[in-house]
Amino acid sequence: MSQQIRNIRQRFDRIFHGTNAERPRDVECGSLTNAYMGFAVSKLYIKKYFDENALNESIEMINNIQNTFLEMLNESTWMDAESKAKTMNQHIGYPDYLGSDNNTKLENDYAEYYSDTSGFPAGILQTPFFNKDAPKYLNYGGKH
Q: What SUPFAM superfamilies does this protein map onto (predicted)?
């Protein structure tokens, strides 16, 4: 961005968000890159840092949480059966196509990814929120 545009942005942020300082350029660039190309950034993160064993353990933990939640819903009297059945979908780690170098098609994943879901992105499935080697009770509490 040109200096003129950055100055306008800084004035806007100061008025509407109460911030006084311009964000460092690396933070601004990282934020914009993640906002506009989040899935591409996720692909790079997954290839370099993500542990498949951690994904499997997190799936087990989240399934346990979901099953407990569904048991509570089944006992509730304020929801009809159809609403109860539609209550929670899960997205854990990352969409399957990010794990493949051969798949270049997004299909409807992006549009459906955020509706009526409980999300656990790959970046959060690490310390301090999740550690595959920690006792399960720490992972359920999200503290390490």
A: Metalloproteases ('zincins'), catalytic domain (SSF55486)
Across the chain, what does the average pLDDT equal? 75
- Partner residues linked to 118 by β-bridges: 90
Residue 76 and residue 2: Cα distance in Å, rounded? Answer: 56
Taking phi over 0 as left and psi of -120 to 50 as alpha, with beta for the rest, 21 belongs to beta
Find the distance separating the first CA and the last CA of the chain, reported in whole Å. Answer: 40
In the chain, domain spans: 1-49, 50-144
Q: Which phi-psi region, left, alpha or beta, contains residue 142 (left: φ > 0; alpha: ψ -120 to 50)?
A: left
Instruction: Return the structure tokens found at 83.
Output: 């609403």
Residues 120, 93: contact at Cβ < 8 Å? Answer: yes
Q: What is the pLDDT of residue 139?
A: 78
**For residue 24, cis peptide bond before it (omega within 30 degrees of 0):** no
Mean pLDDT, range 103-114, rounded to an integer:
51
Helix, strand, coil content of the chain in percent (nearest 5): 60, 5, 35
Structure tokens at 106: 């997004």
Q: What is the DSSP letter of 23?
A: P
